Every structure is written in structure tokens, then in C-alpha cells.
Amino acid sequence: xxxxxxxxxxxxxxxxxxxxxxxxxxxxxxxxxxxxxxxxxxxxxxxxxxxxxxxxxxxxxxxxxxxxxxxxxxxxxxxxxxxxxxxxxxxxxxxxxxxxxxxxxxxxxxxxxxxxxxxxxxxxxxxxxxxxxxxxxxxxxxxxxxxxxxxxxxxxxxxxxxxxxxxxxxxxxxxxxxxxxxxxxxxxxxxxxxxxxxxxxxxxxxxxxxxxxxxxxxxxxxxxxxxxxxxxxxxxxxxxxxxxxxxxxxxxxxxxxxxxxxxxxxxxxxxxxxxxxxxxxxxxxxxxxxxxxxxxxxxxxxxxxxxxxxxxxxxxxxxxxxxxxxxxxxxxxxxxxxxxxxxxxxxxxxxxxxxxxxxxxxxxxxxxxxxxxxxxxxxxxxxxxxxxxxxxxxxxxxxxxxxxxxxxxxxxxxxxxxxxxxxxxxxxxxxxxxxxxxxxxxxxxxxxxxxxxxxxxxxxxxxxxxxxxxxxxxxxxxxxxxxxxxxxxxxxx
Length: 493
Description:
- By secondary structure, the chain is mostly helical.
- The protein contains 22 helices and no strands.
- The protein has helices at 3-6, 15-47, 50-67, 72-76, 86-118, 122-130, 132-136, 138-149, 154-176, 182-202, 217-245, 250-263, 265-287, 293-316, 318-325, 333-351, 354-358, 364-384, 388-415, 419-447, 452-474, 476-483.
- The chain is globular, with a radius of gyration of 22 Å.
């Protein structure tokens, strides 16, 4: 491994093709992986109880609280750098090993205190085992950064797909054998371990860790900024579970956490892969001295074309979806999921801003917006928790638009984009979603007497037809633009 091979690969003329290929591989593999995961999750959900998911949600909040110190940002700093040599890679590897080794020990020791906070002794045993996840992080973060720097997402796609199969197999096997909540604990451990092995082999990462950190100032500065940003993100994303964990029963918390899991499927599972491609792509534009704003506006429109109708539709079909997929013991999820879904388009739009602002190698804007989220979200949750699960739902519906407003105010000037241009790019999405919502609302009265699975299919098909009809009639150019991104559609994506 040398300095030349670590530089960004690919001729400038092939940039659009490489980005298109990266999107297809990274996002396509995520879709396939999630199909596998969801199929197995539906079976596991029917085998386990809301109580099990409540316990698991408690441990995830603690795991996330430690996770912000995992040093992932040190590896990410390699992506926008002009040149990277073997010593820098070794230094990042050393930082990751030290940080995550310390985190594994810290979580192991803190486990009893977390169990005492929640009043659930089993949480301590779960957290001790989950500390193993940190030991896999160096072997995921570093090869991911090196592969992303080259816009090589094919290797990552194959590894992610394999890890999804392994995790699904482990979780389903343990659930069928009656291990209860431990099926939820072991499945992600299996996923992380498989990813660590696969990505290390894919990146051919035969590098020794370097613990002499002289000359690593830029790595430390950028990584530390992302680390602080991650702390703020952890506060805003886990505050609801931490706050509700002492107020709700494990059953109520299980209903809420599983509703939130479903609501965050797109923003939490499908947007991060797109951001992983967008970050090195924007960084390459920045290094070439080209404007980021046009690519950002086009990317946001394409993402919201899929995100907004998905969430509006999810809110409208939450009833038959829960009846069909989860079963009678989960019907309490319906009003929670329906309300949460309405807040998610704003969260999605807020999340896609960070790759563009981080691309020049400076994470201040990202840190400021996450700091705002670390204030807005917990304050809203503290007010809403007193009104039960619907209070938390209302908190999301207030906090998400507020955080989006702050993010746009900080981010758009940073990348040279105007608010009016963003609004113009999103007008087609808003109009088509309104048409879809009207069609599904009218159709719900007609299909009300039918069984839940049939209602779900008819509403989904009717909503999709209305949305695509409105888009095709009103904005055919956007349809052609989106179609050009599909596999095998030529070089003008």
C-alpha cells in the first residue's frame, strides 16, 4: 500500500459514471439486504414480545451513548484528503484500536449502572456482551473509508449483503429456539463481525497500526469535529428512549421503539448509504474546484421523490400494515407509527445536507446543526413524555421541522445554494404527494370492509399509481432523470 494507490481513483471524465455505479451498488445492496432483514424481522417480531424489544431499546440507547467516541471520524477524514499515505492510514488504525478497546472496557464496567437506572437487571448482562461490537469497529471503519475514497462500493455491497444473511440467520435461529431477547442481541454482533472480516479482505488492508501521532493534526481536527457532532447526534436521536425508559412500562416502550424503528427504516437504513456515496462524490467536486450546489439540489430532489411519498403513504396505511405484518399483540403501534411517519420527510431532508457541508473537509456546519438537534429534540421530548406515547409523537412533529429550519439556515449558504431554488426543486414532490394522499384517503372508504392484507395491497397500489400518474403528467422530465439512474440506462445519469 503506497501513497499513489491511496489517492482518489478514476479519471475526471468518468465521474458521473462512477457516482452512478456507486449509487446502484451501495443502495441496491441495501435494498436487497433490508428485504432479507425485514422478512426475518417479521417472523422474529411474531415470536417475541414488546417487552423484549423494550429491553433491547434500553441497551441500544447506552450503546449509542458510548458509540460517539468510536473514532469513526478519524477514518472519515481520509475521504476528502487530497493525498493519503501509509503512515496516515496506520495512524488512523492506531487511533481506532485505542478508542474502541477503551470503549469496550468502559461499557462492560458501566453495564450494572445502566441496569440500575432502568430498573432492569437483565440489561447489565446484555450490555456486557454487546461491548464486543466495539472490537469490530476498527476493521469496519478504516476499510470503509479507503473503499469509499475510491468510490468503490461494489465490494462493500457484497460484504453488507453477506452480513445481512448471517445476522438474519443468527437472529431467526435463536428466536425459534426460544432465546427471547438474546436473539436481538446476538444478531447485530454477527452482522458486525461478518462486515469486519469481509471489508478488511475487500480493502486488502494489510497495514500496521501506528501509535506515533505526530503529523496527524488534520486527521485529529476533522475526526474530533465529527466526534463532537456524533455526540450531539446521539443526544438528539436517543433522548426519547432515555427519557421514556423511566416513565413508560417495557410494553409501552416496546411499542414506541418498534414504531420508531419502522418509521426510521428509510432515513436510518437507506439514506445513510446514499450519504456514503454523496460524501466522496461532493468531496471530489470540491477538490476539483467545482460547485456543489447544482449536484446537491438535484440529489435532494431525487431522494425526496422517493422519501416523501413513502412516509405519507406509510402514515395512511399504518393500520393494515401493522395488522398484516405484526399481528394482534402489536396493534398499539398503529397511531404511533401513523404520527411518526408524518415527521420523517423533514428529518430526511435534514439528514441529506451533511455530506455537502462536510465535503470540503470542514465539519463546522454539521457540528452546529447537530448541536441544535441536541437541544431541540430533548426539550420537545421532555415536554411530550408526560402525555404518553402520543406526546412523544407530537414532539417529533414539532421538533423535526424546527431542526430542518436550522439546518437549512446553516447549510445552504455554506454550499452556495438558495432556499428558493430548493423550494422550486421540491414543488413537484409536494404536489404529487398531495394527489396521492387524496387518492388513498378516498380509497380507504371503499376498501374498509376487506381483510387487512388486501386493504394494504390495494391502498399501496392505488397510492403509487396516483403519485406516478401525477408526476408523469406534470413533470415528465423528472421521471426521465430518475429513470436514467436505473441499471443499464446509459452514460448520461
